[in-house]
Specification:
This protein is an alpha/beta fold and 309 residues long. It has a seven-stranded parallel sheet, sandwiched between helices. The relative contact order is 0.11. The protein binds nicotinamide-adenine-dinucleotide and 2-acetamido-2-deoxy-beta-D-glucopyranose (NAG). Belongs to the short-chain dehydrogenases/reductases (SDR) family. Keywords: Membrane, NAD, Oxidoreductase, Transmembrane, Transmembrane helix.
Length: 309
């Protein structure tokens, strides 16, 4: 039977570890990435949604780090353009036309990648879509598609590539989610649900890896606010001086830094860390007042998005 002293000891150990890691995080925040970056030269990086926006920029960033690239997109011409740019930088590149909402396509493309490029070291789940309508106006087919692309595709790619990462105790799974995966937004119910799903998947996966003792396999989840890639064209930012839309180049640079540092969580811009804390602390009605003030109730009123889709 455990004595009271054992219980006290257990609590003290927890307190010690919490304080230790807290201090560690504060110290590491001041260490430049160049000092603590892991070496990813020669590694194989798979990026979904590489034919545009953040996916394309990430491909080019990884190319500058001398990585080999497996680029996936449903849009072959966009993907081809990215490949051309990356090849121009001297990278080894393979493109794959994959609709990540189709599990069978994911699995068959995954085995093709492994046979052509070897094991994937860094998997970046970046492909994403948005309906951009009030929930009752969202066509069922778009709700299905949104969940498939923004959440479920992460399941299938991880199922395909994680086993080899585990057996080598080496790898990194990056999930490009969104601040809409942390905070609900009017007019984005299906999108928010899918991004909350991606965030929850990442967090659970991280716990599972920890429980397995696989300290060589890392995860990073990225939660950016609006980015000017075209995906959310038309959306209004209420107070640009406080919370402005992000430049795609800044976002891709920050993502690479987070990967090189094995950073688990990246929220952009930093102000949103404060929002997250307030959401956890304040009563719901206060959170409504704050999100409304920041424009979350009307942000989607002027949404245009990408005209083609
Ligand atoms: N743009 C923003 O404001 C913003 C904000 C936060 C998070 N994000 C997320 O960042 C990621 C990248 O967004 P972006 O702004 O670069 O968008 P984007 O539209 O420029 O690029 C998305 C890419 O994904 C591809 N894609 C879409 N459906 C696919 C499918 N079924 N199979 C394979 N590829 C598919 C598209 O063809 C496109 O090339 C997305 O997950 C998005 O949700 C975007
Ligand atoms: C596919 O990519 C091309 C090249 O970037 C772009 O012009 C086109 O609009 C995209 N098509 C769709 C359906 O998104």
């Amino acid at each position: 039977m455990g004595s009271v002293w054992d219980d006290v000891k257990a609590v003290l150990v927890v307190v010690y570890h919490v304080l230790y890691y807290w201090l560690e995080a504060i110290v590491l925040a001041f260490v430049p990435t160049s000092v603590m970056a892991k070496d990813i030269a020669g590694q194989t990086v798979l990026i979904t949604g590489a034919g545009s926006g953040i996916g394309r920029l990430l491909a080019l960033e990884f190319a500058t780090h001398n990585c080999r690239l497996a680029l996936w997109d449903v849009n072959s011409s966009g993907n081809q353009e990215t490949a051309l740019l990356a090849k121009g930088m001297g990278a080894t590149v393979r493109t794959y036309t994959v609709d990540v909402s189709d599990r069978e396509q994911v699995y068959s493309a995954a085995s093709k990648v492994t046979s052509e490029l070897g094991h994937v070291d860094i998997l970046v789940n970046n492909a994403g879509i948005v309906t951009g309508q009030k929930f009752l106006d969202c066509p069922d087919s778009m709700i299905d598609k949104t969940m498939q692309v923004n959440t479920m595709a992460h399941f299938w790619t991880v199922k395909a590539f994680l086993p080899a990462m585990l057996s080598r105790n080496h790898g990194h799974v990056v999930s490009v989610a969104s601040s809409a995966g942390l905070l609900g937004v009017t007019g984005l119910a299906d999108y928010c649900s899918s991004k909350f799903g991606a965030v929850g998947f990442d967090e659970s996966l991280r716990f599972e890896l920890k429980a397995l003792g696989k300290d060589g396999v890392h995860t990073t989840v990225v939660c950016p606010y609006l980015i000017s890639t075209g995906m959310f064209d038309g959306c209004q930012v209420k107070f640009p001086w406080l919370l402005n839309s992000l430049e795609p180049e800044v976002v891709s640079e920050e993502i690479i830094k987070a990967v090189l540092r094995n950073q688990e969580f990246l929220i952009l811009p930093r102000l949103l860390y404060i929002f997250m804390a307030l959401k956890g602390l304040l009563p719901v009605k206060c959170v409504h007042v704050l999100s409304d003030y920041m424009g979350a109730s009307h942000m989607m009123d002027t949404f245009k998005g990408r005209k083609s889709s």
